[in-house]
Amino acid sequence: MHDLIGFLFGEHGGEIDRTAVWTFVIAVVTLSAVMVAWRQLAGIRATSRADFTFRFIESFFTSETRTLFLLLLNSALTFDVIEILRSDGTKDRLPFLKIDQDVVKQLNGIVTLTPGKTGYSSFEVDDLLLGHFESLGWYVRKKLIDFDAAYSSFSYYLMAAYEHCEIRKYLADEDNKDTYEDFPRLYERFSKGLRPRFWRKLC
User: Fold this and answer.
1) Where are the domains of the chain?
2) Residue 151 contacts residue 108 (beta carbons within 8 Å)
3) pTM for the complete prediction?
4) What is the dihedral of CA 172, 131, 162, 62, to 10 degrees?
């Protein structure tokens, strides 16, 4: 040990370039520190992404979203457009999903709707369901949410919605056709894997 200390700090003579040796030692120590910091940063990133994913999952699985999705899968919603006549004689339009009251009556005790509610406006459809899928697609593309985690938690809901005839009509409507980009892109990525197909009977 004494010989090593003497060598490093110049107590013994010799032709060894101690500056080069110290430069190498410092480089090794620095590299080790960088590797440790990188592992710590990766751990922080993973924890942060997991927390972000968990919070997004919580924001999606609300009672209102579950009700809308349940009605969709049980053929209780159909795409329609309300033509609105303004006082100046011009017209406006509101795309919406109309509720089939005959189906809802059969779901009495399972689904609870606001009394007198006859449909979901385009704002509700976007806020409660499709807007979440658009955000999810963007988060996955930006790597804020891991693709595998997104597939595991949302592929069933996203693909069932995207392949539903009434949602297809909704997306194709002139008011909505340029609204979504990441939603269909994520659907295409999900569709490359294994997936359930039972909802195709709804189209």
Assistant:
1) 2-48, 61-202
2) no
3) 0.72
4) -140
